[in-house]
Amino acid sequence: MDSMKRRLSSAPRASSIDHGADADLAKMGYKSELPRNLSMLSVLGMSFAIMAVPFGLSTTLYITLTDGQSVTILWGWVLISLISLSIAASLAEICAVYPTAGGVYYWSAMMSTREWAPIASWICGWLNLVGNWTVTLSINFSGGQLVLSAISLWREDFAPTPWQTVLMFWAVMLVCFLINAFGSRYLDLINKICIYWTASSVVIIMIVLLSMAPKNGGFRTGEFVFAHYDASASGWPAGWAFFVGLLQAAYTLTGYGLVASMCEEVQNPAREVPRAIVLSVAAAGVTGVIYLIPILFVLPDVDFLLAAASGQPIGLLFKTVTGSSAGGFGLLFLILGILLFAGTGALTASSRCTYAFARDGAIPGGKLFGSTNAKLGIPLWGLVLSTLVDCALGLIYFGSTAAFNSFTGVATICLSCGYGLPILVSVLRKRKMVQHSTYSLGKFGFAINIVCLCWIALAIVLFCMPVSLPVTASSMNYASVVFAGFASLSMIWYFVHGRKNFTGPPVPKDINNVVEGEAVNGMGEGAAAGYDGKGMGKEV
């Protein structure tokens, strides 16, 4: 009851209002509390920023250099881009029906029966929340590492201490927090600039590398770029190493679903957000190919790159190809600019996800973290919690030098599972709830959904694996440990609080009772007719 009062409580609105979208949101059980001042281009920019293709591929380059080199880098990227496009299309199909900040958490409940809606939304909500937190963590942690790696351009033997790495990570988190807290009115502009900065950076890096390579080592052959495969450094069987190396591409292409949490800040979200989700993945896939091929053509000695004291070989690659520390830093600066957009966008989405989940009482302190700050026009306490959780998780680095691999693994696993659950529920219910979606996958929908689910099942296993063998305590991939830790916290809180108090988001009447062929304002009829104003659906 209290959670529903918070849902329907009034709040000052700062700017743009879309009465149609607000009415649709009210039918889903929520009062619009955030200004709708983001455009489709802005949301596409945010999704593009969170994926941050050149940044993500650069900071995880050591993975694919170990697990297969060219074939894993290039063709692994193409494979995961196609799979990610399938998942994005599946999510866009659902988002067009239920455009709310709850995202996959809300969709899981709405797609389920009344009986299973609370537990489905609880599980999916926690997966999505942890995924949001850890993808923000991995972006900003690797960003801190990349900043410190710039020092090694002049001092190649420089190896930052754990304290230096963690402090730099905290500094990056602080900058992203301040931009989100006090620059929220400029997020639309920031997200649009990100598109142009990223595209320009890829073009500049490509031109500089290809023009300067003949003077500093020359080019690799086409056979090396498109067909070379060497997984000897991994310790894994040759075929399996390719799949372990897919973490690079899968981690980079995970952020597209996070922008669903921005639905309540976009005008006409049922149309614009699904478009942004799909277009951002398509753009990211093309950008990755354009970025990777020149990198492979000018790739220096792989053992030399893997021996980088900083653990981040991209700066050393730039320095070697350009022939100077200043040239290497100039290109690295472009990547660091992308980091700023990525970290800011990921923390924005993370704070909205925290806010949406907390307002339904699914996390401790829901009354506080599920509130909005009227003056700033943002869910301030959701932003604070997201930042503090990430800063605390960064301390894992003191116990494991492979902590970044753990962060990327758990982020990819949680977000993939979070994306997969509403798709699974849709398949189990014969896709009835999305049959009238404005972004319907049509007759190919079932096959596309099954491919997505098969990949997600494989990814859960793959990304708990260490990059290479043998494994020590410090090089172990602790993704499964972090995942189990949050799963335990979720389970304990469910039995302490959720089992008796959590009803999930407003739930429609059972799909079996919905009159087929009818829809209300782009939503399933149950979404509108099933809402009774008491925090859950009623049968009609």
TrEMBL record:
One of the Pfam families matching this protein, by short name: AA_permease_2
Entry membrane topology: Multi-pass membrane protein
Species whose genome carries this gene: Cryoendolithus antarcticus
InterPro entries: AA/rel_permease1
Gene Ontology molecular function: transmembrane transporter activity
Protein name (Swiss-Prot/TrEMBL): Polyamine transporter TPO5
Bilayer-spanning residue ranges: 38-63, 75-98, 119-141, 161-182, 194-213, 233-256, 277-299, 326-349, 376-398, 404-425, 446-469, 475-496
GO annotations of cellular component type: membrane
Location relative to the cell: Membrane
Superkingdom classification of source: Eukaryota
Keyword vocabulary terms for this entry: Membrane, Transmembrane, Transmembrane helix, Transport
